[in-house]
């Protein structure tokens, strides 16, 4: 199981990884921070990039924060970072 701590920026022009923010991957999300839309977009984007079903991606901490801890079942940390284009 991979665990990532990411910094999310909702309301962006497009969903993408935009480098690092305080040493954490910065994920810009096109979805607004309303009614869980940004969290759902983050889960969908990570699942698609890592090649796992959305049901295997869980936000375990930071549901209402920009800094989130995400667990991805089925892959390890190295594979997750590689799939997201992180060092």
TrEMBL record:
> GO terms for CC?
cytoplasm
**One Pfam family linked to the record:** DUF167
Top-rank lineage group of the source organism? Bacteria
By sequence similarity, the record places it as follows: Belongs to the UPF0235 family.
PANTHER family under this entry?
UPF0235 PROTEIN C15ORF40
State what protein this is by name: UPF0235 protein Ttaiw_02437
């Amino acid at each position: 199981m991979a665990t990532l701590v990411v910094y999310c920026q909702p309301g962006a022009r497009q969903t993408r990884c935009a480098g690092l923010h305080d040493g954490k991957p910065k994920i810009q999300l096109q979805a607004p921070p309303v009614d869980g839309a940004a969290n759902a977009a983050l889960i969908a984007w990570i699942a698609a990039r890592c090649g796992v079903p959305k049901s295997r991606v869980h936000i375990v901490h930071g549901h209402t924060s920009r800094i989130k801890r995400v667990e991805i079942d089925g892959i390890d940390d190295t594979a997750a970072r590689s799939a997201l284009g992180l060092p």
